[in-house]
Amino acid sequence: MKIKILHEDSDILAIDKPSGILVHPGQKNEDKTILDLFVKKYPKVEIIHRLDRETSGVMLLAKNAKAHEFLKKQFMDREIKKTYYAIVSGWVKNDHDTINKPIGRSPSDFRRKLAGRGARGELREAITEYKVLKRFIISGNKFSYLEIHPKTGRTHQIRVHMKFINHPVISDSLYNPDKPYPKGLDRLALHAKSIEFKDLKGKIVKVESPLPKEFGKIIKLQK
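RESULT FIELD:
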C-alpha cells in the first residue's frame, strides 16, 4: 500500500492515512501498519499520535527522537490544532457547541470508552468543539455534517462525545452499530482534515488532507 506524503522536512512527515489501516502493531496483528510501511525508509521513525483504524486523514510522524519529543510536547501542551470532519446520525440541534465531559472505560465492553454516567476507572478530561456545516436527509434518515476541533486527545474522543450527545458518527461499529448510513459510506465517517503545528525551526505549518471521495459524493448530493 502506498501512502501519500502531504508534507516532509528533515524531521517530520505528514501523511494521508487511509481508512482501514492500523497505526501501530497490536497484539496478534498480522496486517501491515503505518509504522511498518515507513520504518524501512525511515529507520528512526516514531509515532507521535494515533488515528483509529477506520479514521482517515492527516497524521504526523517523527523521523527522529528529537522531533518526536518536540512534537510530543506540543501535543501535551495542547498547542497542536486539529480539525476533523464527520457525518453523524440525526440533526444536531445547536449550530455550534463545546462538549466538556470526562471519558472513562465502558463497564460492558473493554474496547469502548464512555462519557457520563457509568464510566469506570480514571476519568480523564476531554473537550470537543464542533459546528454544524449542514443538515440533510437521505432515504428518510436525518444526518448532520460537522466540523470538529478536539482540544484534548483521548482515545475515541470524538466518537465517544458524539455518542454522548446522542448523535454518534455513522458507520461506527463500536458506538453506532445499528443506525442507518447513506449508501456508499460504509466506513467510519470521520476524517482528520487538517493539523497545524510548529516545526523544529519555529515555523507554523498547516497540513490538509483532501476530503475522501465517499464523503464528497454524499455532501455534493446535498448542496
